[in-house]
Amino acid sequence: MRVALGASALLLGLSVVVITATPSQTITPSTAPATAQNAAPAATPAALAAADDAAAKHAKRTACLTEAKARKLVGTEKNAFLKGCIDAP
């Protein structure tokens, strides 16, 4: 009985080691074949220009906020400075 119990404990321990050592494989089935109909649309020049414009505005605003902080402006002085700074070319 002791030998059977020891052997079963050993096999159980080895099976846990084998299961955890085996790399898991994730299988993701393809839902639809890649065709021109379901492909991502190409970015239009207008969309790219709008993205560039938004990025430029963000960079300008960040620079103006940094300068306002360096000048230690607060309240209406800060708002007036930011309005002039952001609107400047």
Textual characterization of the structure:
This protein is mainly alpha-helical. The protein has a domain at 44-89. It has 3 helices and no strands. The longest helix has 26 residues, at 45-70. It is elongated.
Feature tags:
89 residues, mainly alpha, 3 helices, elongated
Low-confidence stretches: none
- Shape descriptor reads elongated
Rg, rounded, reads 32 Å
Based on DSSP secondary structure assignment, what is the total number of beta strands? Answer: 0
Name the beta content range: under 5%
- Average pLDDT across residues? 76
Termini distance?
Answer: 90 Å
Count of helical stretches: 3
Structural class: mainly alpha
Major sheet summary line: none
Order of helices and strands: HHH
Helix content: 55-70%
**What's the oligomerization state?**
single chain
What is the secondary structure topology, with strand pairs?
Layout: H1 2-21, H2 45-70, H3 75-87
Would you summarize the structure shown here?
It is built from 3 helices and no strands.
